[in-house]
Every structure is written in structure tokens, then in C-alpha cells.
Design a protein that fits this description.
The chain is of the alpha+beta class. The chain has one domain (about 30-170). About 15% of the residues lie in helices and about 25% in strands. The chain has three helices and eleven strands; from the N terminus they run ααββββββαβββββ. The strands form three sheets. Strands 1, 2, 5, 6, 9, 10 and 11 form a seven-stranded mixed sheet that branches. A two-stranded antiparallel ribbon has the order 3-4. It has a two-stranded antiparallel ribbon with strand order 7-8. A hairpin with a 6-residue loop joins strand 5 and strand 6 (about 105-110). The radius of gyration is 16 Å and the shape is globular.
């Protein structure tokens, strides 16, 4: 594929994704967290969740689509850490959407150009994310992208390059991040 063709495919993907994707089938996912945070990553449950959430086990990170986002999650005003290793299974496979550390950076590294959604990383993590629920906490869910308030289901958010995503459940902190300083090369 030429650079122009690849750039055009990415442009089409990013500009023509207004249609809703199928929602995550939360009731079909084994072992969702039903307690208060912190919510550890349940690596052993990942293989059973993949097909339902539209992700693939890869032998290496994909290189065709390579973008990053940053997530800040708050429950009742307290920051919740996005665990390291989400989407990585026993060093035997990695998915297109994953984390490497606890910085809140989400990595989308796919062998194909397609749309990935925020709900997919939450489903891998085992934390329900809908318009009204984050984990077992339901009610008063608000979210922002790059400082702009959003409506609807945050799980349906199309992941795009360098988004600062903030989700709150319950009490909203006085100060919310509007941007994230991604490390060089991200």
C-alpha cells in the first residue's frame, strides 16, 4: 500500500465513523468487577472476552494503525489507575488495544486500519463502561474528550490519536485534565 493510499484509508476511517458500533455485550463477559475500585486487571479472563469485544490475539503489536490516547478515570472524586498489561496475556499474545504501564496511556497498535472503541479496553479490563455505569458504580457518569463535555455512551468513543479522555462517576473533581503531554515518539 502506498503512503498516499494508507493516509487516505486513515482519513476515511477517522472521518466516516459517525455510525454507532455494536455495544459491548457486558452481560456476556465473564468476571466483571462488581466492587469498588481499585480494579485489578484479570489477565486470565482475557481469552474468554476477546471474541465478544471484537479484538484479536496477535503475536506482535500491529504496525499499520499505531495511535495513543490518555485516560483519566475518577470515581467519587478519586483517581482510578488504569492497570499495566491490559490486553496482554501471559506474554503469549497481545491485542490491538492495550496498556504497557500505569500512566493511563492506551496503545492502539493494529495490523489493519479500523475503528477501535474505548469500551474495548474497559471490557479487557473487566470494568463495565456505559452511559450510566463505570464498574459497579451506576449514576452520575460524565465524560470529556480534550476538555470538551460529551454525551452518550463513552464506551462507543472512537479512539483517535492523542485524545485526553476523562470519565467521572459520582463526585466530579474540581480540576479536570484538558490535555496530556504525550512522551516523544507517541
Amino acid at each position: 500500500m502506498t503512503r498516499f493510499a494508507l493516509a487516505f484509508a486513515v482519513f476515511v476511517l477517522l472521518t466516516c465513523t459517525s455510525a454507532q458500533a455494536a455495544p459491548i455485550p457486558w452481560s456476556q463477559l465473564p468476571g466483571l468487577h462488581r466492587d469498588a475500585p481499585p480494579w485489578p486487571y484479570q489477565e486470565a479472563r482475557l481469552p474468554a472476552r476477546l471474541q465478544a469485544i471484537g479484538l484479536e490475539p496477535l503475536t506482535a503489536e500491529g504496525q499499520v494503525l499505531h495511535i495513543h490516547q490518555h485516560l483519566d478515570l475518577y470515581v467519587n472524586g478519586k483517581h482510578v489507575v488504569l492497570p499495566a498489561g491490559i490486553g496482554i496475556y501471559d506474554n503469549s499474545f497481545i491485542t490491538e488495544v492495550h496498556t504497557h504501564d500505569t500512566t493511563g496511556i492506551i496503545h492502539v497498535e493494529s495490523p489493519t486500519v479500523r475503528t477501535f472503541r474505548l469500551g474495548q479496553i474497559f471490557a479487557e479490563w473487566g470494568v463495565k463502561l456505559t452511559a450510566v455505569c463505570v464498574g459497579a458504580y451506576c449514576g452520575h457518569v460524565h465524560w470529556w474528550v480534550n476538555g470538551k463535555a460529551q454525551r452518550g455512551d463513552p464506551g462507543q468513543l472512537s479512539l483517535r490519536e492523542h485524545q485526553e479522555i476523562v470519565i467521572t462517576a459520582g463526585r466530579v473533581p474540581a480540576q479536570l485534565p484538558r490535555a496530556y503531554a504525550f512522551p516523544f515518539g507517541y
